[in-house]
Fold this protein.
Amino acid sequence: MPNKVKQMWKAGQAVANGWLAIPNAFSAEMFAQSGWDSLTVDMQHGVQDYLSCVACFQGMQPHPVTPMVRVPWNEPGIIGKVLDAGAYGVICPMVNTPEEARALVQYCKYPPHGTRSNGPIRAGLYGEGGSYQKTANDEILVIPMIETKQAIENIGAILDVPGIDGIYVGPSDLSFSYGMEPKLDVEDPFILGIYEKLLAECGKRGIAAGLHCGSPAYAKRMIKMGYKLVTIANEVAIMVNAAKAIVKDIKSA
């Protein structure tokens, strides 16, 4: 199955990415019908575990969304398992050096380009006639998170690692690492300057840049700036904000 995100990037299009914190196949199934291009299961800061990640993928499967995962850490065991479960993209937190970026690529790719172990227990179903292993290295997106001062200082070397398809900016940790308040939808000129620098460095290498946003307005602004993947909050925040607005409206009567 071709990777929709990869196809959209090649066409110069921006990807609307949903974020799943709820460990439930039904909520993932419903969210998958909302028009997102991709859905990312958050195994770092959400309450997802491996089995709930698989369940979310099963809920998504009937719908034209690309399944991705933010793994808890840059560690080969969990990266291999989410790929075996059917992830078409791995977003990995706290990649700060080219050595860590190279390790991430190794964990995501089969030989000869990596050290991923063969055993795509569920992902293999996506390949017709046993072709999964032949196409996985080309179709799976390897996306390190850039979210620290150290990563910014090493950005050129990180982006030069073969096999990196995109980066994903974590605004809260990035601000935090510079001694600022951790938050989404940053307006600080210094951080916005870093966003521009990242786009310039990615642009030189034909690499896509993604960003976690808190609102549709900010996401649209980042797309206009040049970001090719934007996430708006997560399904929990969207649900709670909608519920609060409804309750406030009712009680105003």
Notes: The chain has a mean pLDDT of 97. The longest strand covers residues 15-20. The chain has twelve helices and eight strands.
